[in-house]
Amino acid sequence: MKKTLALLLALCMAMTLVSAALAADATTISFAWWGGDARHEATQNAVNAYMAANPNVTITTDYGAWTGWEEKVSTALYAGTAADINQANWSWLTNYNADGKTFLDLNAYSDSIDLTQFDQSALDTCTVDGKLYGLPVAVTGRIFYWNTDTFTKAGIDFPKSYADLLAAGEVFKTKLGDDYYPLVMGEYDRMIFMVYYLESKYGKAWIENGELQYGVDEIAEVLNVFKDLEAAHVIPSIKTILGDGAESLDKNPKWTDGRYAGILEWDSSASKFQKALANPDAFTVGEYFSDLGEYHGGFTKVSMVFAISATAKDPTACAKFLNYLLNEKEGVELLNSQRGIPCSKAGLAICKEGNLLDKLVAEANAKVVGWCQFKLDPYFEDAGLRAENDGVYYDVQQGVSYGDYEPAEAAQILIDGINA
Question: What average pLDDT does range 27-32 have in this prediction?
């Protein structure tokens, strides 16, 4: 009996010591990201799995759609209340980190993050003044996607050229009705298309060495193109899109039911548009338009990064979790290609071995990387330019679409905004 009591006492003491050790090591980190429902689900599953394997770590999460997300996060970054780990646009590493005090240098956490899994060129993209402020998640670019069900309903194939796109507008209006358009582009989409159009025709990067390479006449040319596309019933006006009242395009009923039949979207974000369709199998990767010009217009960029805030109380725990997400088998398998084709060599190998890459994402990314010959300048995504509703891009594109600005006037406003 005494031996039994002694054994129980020893066991209780051991359990107490273990509990005390766990309590001493207990840590809480916060993690914030944007995306669609599929990304949310995959990421939350990874968070839950990590906490199950590491009971001393608690991870709180905050996530939502892109609409309004940058404004929310930028406010938190300036206030020092941002999440410990942020999914961030590559441009945020400079736009919100001018003094180098917003994000931590991840080189200091190389014992927790296997940085050798990333090509140096990708790491260099996320390095400012010798400090690695973000982990590159994937490389992405914009490409056309089409709802083939709607084009079949119209009796035509989806556009393989710019001429095909122009011709599709009248067919859609005549055969399907005024609510049907072969392509939909919001304000920022139009800016992406503008750069693609100009680079294809003139062979110059949009911005080179910090300087805009295009003048009033060239920019006004594309703003006139948008007016022509609206008049030809190829794209709906900005007024029409805003009148739809949708939080985001993937949640717009005109997209989900096929009345809007095409988009120009990041290959890393297209899955949410596919899943929103009544028939996801109709979602098809398109082609770049070779008849726009002799050059391969369009750009690639690091799609997003994971960055650790300077205010994080336990940056080592944050770094270990990021290594799990990007380099370790379980984390990589749970995230798969929800953020694009992995930059991490280990992550990519795990996805390929497990056949985890979304075939559509992989097809689109291969076309993007194989076509686009230009790189994106980080200033293109400056908050003052691309801020929803009150950014320069939105002012210019809305002004031309509503008829408040003549194209040449709007082109000068855009140039002045970029050079400000």
Answer: 98
